[in-house]
Amino acid sequence: MKAKCREAIATYAMLTPGDSVVVGLSGGADSCALLHCLCGLREEMNLSLLAVHINHGIRDAEAARDAAFAESLCREWSVAFRLYEYDVPRIAAEKGIGVEECGRILRYECFEREALLCNAKIATAHTLSDSVETMLFHMIRGCTINGLRGIPPVRGRLIRPLILCERQEIEAYCAEHGLAYMTDSTNFSTDYSRNKIRLKLLPLMREINPSVTRALERLAQSAADDDDYLNSLAFPLADSFRQDDHVEMFLTAPSPVARRALVMLCGRMLNMVPECRHVEAMLSTMRKGNGSFHLPGGHVFRVTRGQMRLEPRQKTVNTPQTDDGRSWECELSWGEIITPASRKIILQALDQTKYDIIRKNHQNVFQNSLDYDILKNPLFRFRREGDRFSPAGRGCTKSLKKLFNEFRIPVGQRSWIPLLVCGTEIAWIDGIGVAEGFQVTRETRHIVYIQTEPVLRSGSEGGTDIR
To answer: Which fold is adopted by the domain 329-463?
Structure first.
């Protein structure tokens, strides 16, 4: 297992010397083996490790036992430890989503928050067995080629060092090294779809082919190669689309390419991923030349006399009544964000040392850096009626109209300039800078540095964040 872990790290360039790594530690065999393996690489690669454990508030005493075990293990291995506790069933009910999905969302929110604070990679203990189970789950639900890719070894800052290892190899590694671990009792409940796949379906498949896991691994790689190639053809089509363009550009493209381009556009313009049935309905409406229907989230797909529009959900409070993407908003998250105006927002986490180094070599760093710990529920969006802004260091508050006049920003561009807001306060405006009260000081511990640039219009670089 250790050799396969090293192979995955090298093959997929998961880690470089000096990296900080946030490790998801459930206390189970997979995550304990992962943390143990990374501890073995800690000195060799000069890694800084932080383990994060989430108590989902589902299994009562058993969950508390797992949290105590994870903390004790980290103390024994000299690894920094962070515990989060949630009442996931309550939160899931409030949000109207499943408990499993809610728990997954909260876990990754915790990982992302900790990673942002220390500019770290996020390591989760997903294995080849998990990837195969994910493939089968997608197949049963009815997926496209993308769903056959399984779990990617790397996605952004997220890495899976155990992705080449099967579950029995993990358990053998734990036995070899005398590693204790906790067993989640819900893993044996067939109330969950994934457990049915693991406990019932895969054993039947192994009776037909004992090497079914490796066979499905080959299928995943083949699907990934095909999917990447088709996406490379779809990116230029998605990049060239403008509201009210004629549908002919999609109807004359090969169907697999047109479908992918539509999914990309929904991601960029509506911040949602349509299901297969929605994509097919889009193509059917295009062929008719007229018609409209609602997409998930209240968005609208419309074709009028052969011209196509994607209309974002209309909002009722302080939102411009436009149907061209300007009601867009997006939560602050690590990595790259593409706005409907094809502007790329790049977020980088800094500490004071890195901030001082960058300031020496780059202009405009101060006006594009914010104190992360001050930000409360930050969102990126475009301007709205009544917006006002207080530029840092100027002792005044101005309407955005006056501010844009002062900076001589063309009228046609003003509605497409991304803002970072916290509630009703604007914390940052692209091209203008940070607001009073949000700027970096010598007391700031965690810094968010924001850069923007236009999206490139060639190859696949114009849409790398839509998946």
So the answer is: Phenylalanyl-tRNA Synthetase; Chain B, domain 3 (3.50.40)
Q: CA 31, CA 126: separation in Å to the nearest integer?
A: 8
Residue 449's DSSP bridge partners are 348, 369
Q: Where in the chain is the domain with CATH 3.30.465.60?
A: 241-311
Q: In 148-290, at which residue ranges do the beta strands (DSSP E only) sit?
A: 154-155, 158-159
Q: What is the CATH number of domain 241-311?
A: 3.30.465.60
CA–CA gap between residue 69 and residue 63 (Å, rounded):
10
Tens place of pLDDT per residue across the chain (467 aa): 999 999 999 999 999 999 999 999 999 999 999 999 999 999 999 999 999 999 998 878 888 999 999 999 999 999 999 999 989 888 888 877 788 888 888 898 889 888 877 889 999 999 999 999 999 998 988 888 888 988 999 988 899 999 999 999 999 999 999 999 998 776 776 666 788 999 999 999 999 999 999 999 999 999 989 999 999 999 999 989 998 999 999 999 999 999 999 999 998 888 788 888 899 999 999 999 999 988 887 888 999 999 999 988 754 333 333 444 556 888 887 677 888 877 888 888 888 888 887 777 666 788 889 998 888 889 999 998 889 999 888 888 999 989 988 888 877 778 889 999 998 899 999 989 999 999 998 888 888 989 887 764 333 333 323 22
Return the CATH superfamily for domain 2-215.
Answer: HUPs (3.40.50.620)
Question: Residues spanned by CATH 3.40.50.620 within the chain?
Answer: 2-215
Distance of CA 280 to the CA centre of its chain: 26
